[in-house]
Amino acid sequence: MMKEGARHQERSDLGLDSKRERAEHILTQLRDYAEQGYLFHGGKTRVDVLEPRQAHDDDPDRRTGKARAVYATDDIRIPIVMALFEKADPALSGWQSSYTTAEDGTLLVSGENCTLTQGFIHVLPPETFESEGDEHDRETLSFAPVAPIDIIPVDADVLAFLDGISIDPVLMQNAPQSAER
Question: Helix (H, G, I), strand (E, B), or coil: what is residue 29?
């Protein structure tokens, strides 16, 4: 369960009027947590305790994406993207979402039959996590359940203010537009 006094407040309670202010507030919160050593996990639902789940990675050369664990990272870009991914057309049987890191460090994000909708970033204490990642992989794994200290809602608007990320334009076209213009 979240600790009492978690710093997060709903964006509507903060009096933030613009997409930019909301996005900058979210990114500032995440960067503050990162500086304190916390890790991040992105998902579509708010979860009080994250349980280890079996991961499935089709890349035969990767070790990390195949464990039964809670996955987290100190790189805020990855959980933001994972929180936002969703199947675009439920009538179609398949969908795929992916990200990779370019040589210059830019996170390249793409997908098929997927879109970007609101999700949640779970802020996790690092104590039960260990680094079992592949070389240059910043993912860490916990083989035990983990309770977030904070859960922060995020939407696709934040991507416009996040450095070091390149989103396939098709994903952005499929993303629901914010009610605010």
Answer: helix
